[in-house]
TrEMBL record:
<comment type="similarity">
    <text>Belongs to the short-chain dehydrogenases/reductases (SDR) family.</text>
</comment>
<dbReference type="InterPro" id="IPR020904">
    <property type="entry name" value="Sc_DH/Rdtase_CS"/>
</dbReference>
<keyword id="KW-0521">NADP</keyword>
<dbReference type="GO" id="GO:0005783">
    <property type="term" value="C:endoplasmic reticulum"/>
</dbReference>
<dbReference type="GO" id="GO:0005811">
    <property type="term" value="C:lipid droplet"/>
</dbReference>
<dbReference type="GO" id="GO:0004806">
    <property type="term" value="F:triacylglycerol lipase activity"/>
</dbReference>
<dbReference type="InterPro" id="IPR036291">
    <property type="entry name" value="NAD(P)-bd_dom_sf"/>
</dbReference>
<keyword id="KW-0560">Oxidoreductase</keyword>
<dbReference type="InterPro" id="IPR002347">
    <property type="entry name" value="SDR_fam"/>
</dbReference>
<dbReference type="GO" id="GO:0006654">
    <property type="term" value="P:phosphatidic acid biosynthetic process"/>
</dbReference>
<dbReference type="Pfam" id="PF00106">
    <property type="entry name" value="adh_short"/>
</dbReference>
<protein>
    <submittedName>
        <fullName>NAD(P)-binding protein</fullName>
    </submittedName>
</protein>
<dbReference type="GO" id="GO:0019433">
    <property type="term" value="P:triglyceride catabolic process"/>
</dbReference>
<dbReference type="GO" id="GO:0000140">
    <property type="term" value="F:acylglycerone-phosphate reductase (NADP+) activity"/>
</dbReference>
């Protein structure tokens, strides 16, 4: 992975606001001696990273003009190359499938999925020019397992996984490797504003169960973000990267169930874990 203009590799990380995965990934790449371009939608969110000596840049992955401006700026810094693109920017949205606000879902997909496609399309020439580029897509175990009350978010990550699988094949002739990080529970702010079931929802009878079982669930026993970052960065810097790299709390569990039990194994487990089997009993009693 040699840049034509410098011996130091350059990495661009999206979504680097404090308290998130991207923030820690940017710091870890910096500690390993890479030239890091840390980005976020709000410039003020990058102050702490700038104080550590990282280069920072305002970037909104949902805006083509913003992405192209970042591409041109980085090309001017590096002589037209980029070694690693880390697509980390993301949003969460956890509500029952029947309660979704489609405008919110579309906005989430703009960040989680279309933003990645936009970044890849614009930065592909720089990655190819590096001679051995890397595209790192931050996926989720939610894109593999049917995590209840997260159908929209799960779908955005499943779409990202499918996109990455095909992108990996398409970019291989240009010596650009693509790795999808299947992320389990990691300490972050992505679920800092948990949604609650509303009284008008068909799931209102289990509102208390939802609050107990689902809200903030991803942060219970979650892996520290700095530990996550060390392992992910180490993996992305290998000569040959994995197609999928499973990491974070419950990631092994998810891999095991997905590999050995099939779809219905998840259905049985999550129905009981998240109170849907209790809801069934509640509804049955109301009918009697």
């Amino acid at each position: 992975m040699n840049s034509s203009t410098t011996s130091r590799k350059t990495v661009l990380v999206t979504g680097c606001s404090p308290g998130g995965i991207g923030h820690e990934l940017a710091k870890e790449y910096h500690l390993r001696g890479l030239r890091v371009i840390a980005t976020a939608r709000r410039p003020e969110a990058l102050t702490a990273l700038a104080a550590l000596g990282l280069e920072t840049l305002q970037l909104d992955v949902t805006k083509t003009d913003s992405v192209r401006a970042a591409r041109d700026y980085i090309a001017s810094l590096t002589g037209g190359t980029l070694d690693i693109l880390v697509n980390n920017a993301g949003q969460s949205y956890s509500v029952p499938a029947t309660d979704i606000d489609l405008d919110e879902v579309k906005a989430m997909f703009e960040v989680n999925f279309f933003g990645v496609m936009r970044m890849v399309q614009e930065f592909a020439p720089l990655l190819i020019a590096s001679g051995s580029g890397r595209i790192v897509n931050i996926g989720s175990i939610s894109g593999v397992m049917p995590y209840p009350f997260g159908s929209s978010y799960n779908a955005s990550k499943a779409a990202l996984h499918a996109y990455g699988n095909t992108l990996r094949i398409e970019m291989e002739p240009f010596n650009v490797q693509v790795i999808t990080i299947i992320t389990g529970g990691v300490k972050s702010n992505i679920s800092r504003n948990p949604r609650l079931i509303q009284p008008t929802s068909i799931y209102a009878p289990m509102a208390d169960i939802f609050r107990e079982k689902r809200a903030g669930r991803s942060q219970v026993g979650a892996m520290p973000a700095d530990v996550y970052a060390k392992q992910v960065v180490a993996q992305t810097l290998k000569y040959h990267v994995k197609a999928w790299f499973w990491i974070g709390n419950y990631s092994f569990f998810c891999w095991f169930f997905d590999t050995f039990t099939g779809r219905r194994g998840f259905d049985w487990l999550f129905s009981r874990t998240f109170g849907l089997s209790k809801l069934k009993n509640i509804l049955r009693k109301k009918q009697n």
